[in-house]
Amino acid sequence: MERKSALHDLLELKKPLGEILLTLDRFERDSVPLVTLERRHVASILRRYCDGDLNRHDVERWANLIVSHNDIDYNSDAVVREHLMELALPANTHLTRERADKSAVALIEGPTARAVEAAARVLHHEALRHGWWGKYKKTYDELAATDPIGKFEFDGLVERMLIAATQAEIGDDQ
Asked: I need a labelling partner for 81 at 20 to 30 A (CA). Which of 10, 67, 111, 171 fits?
């Protein structure tokens, strides 16, 4: 239980990284995820960076620690994974406070992986029903099972559509 608590401290960066590392170093690493990195965690770190509570090095070090722990799942949400990998880059010179703020907002307001998949299923089903795919007849589940890259790309397209729809709703057409 203490290990899981320490992993939560890392996700939320509740304590200084050095202190969290000392606690985590007392435990053997496990390949089974005990906790999941969520959008809110990444958004919180980005907000703290924007507020000046953390510097670029802190953010990079935090992201690298998350990536290095197999007991933290961050792969279940493509958006979280993408942000995390970008933050983990050495000397991330692209991370400005303005960009971090926009990323934090996008993480919070963007569609969840569940919403993207639900919308992708509807679009795929309607495309098959209307014959938009031509001779292609695979269901969404068959696509997922036989072509994970195709599913990832299709879901990415749907996600961009959902983001564009949200931006149109709030009047932010960037």
From this structure: 171
User: Cβ–Cβ contacts within 10 Å for residue 122, how many?
Assistant: 12
Rounded-to-integer distance, Cα 167 and Cα 41, Å: 23
My answer on whether 56 and 27 are in the same domain is yes
pTM above 0.70, yes or no: no
Do 144 and 67 fall within a single domain?
Answer: no
Cα–Cα distance for residue pair 113/139, rounded to 1 Å: 19
Q: Which domain holds residue 61?
A: 2-109
pLDDT digits (tens, 9 = 90+) for 120-174: 999 999 999 999 988 888 899 998 899 988 888 888 888 878 877 776 776 655 4
- Pairwise CA distance, residues 147 & 106, whole Å: 28
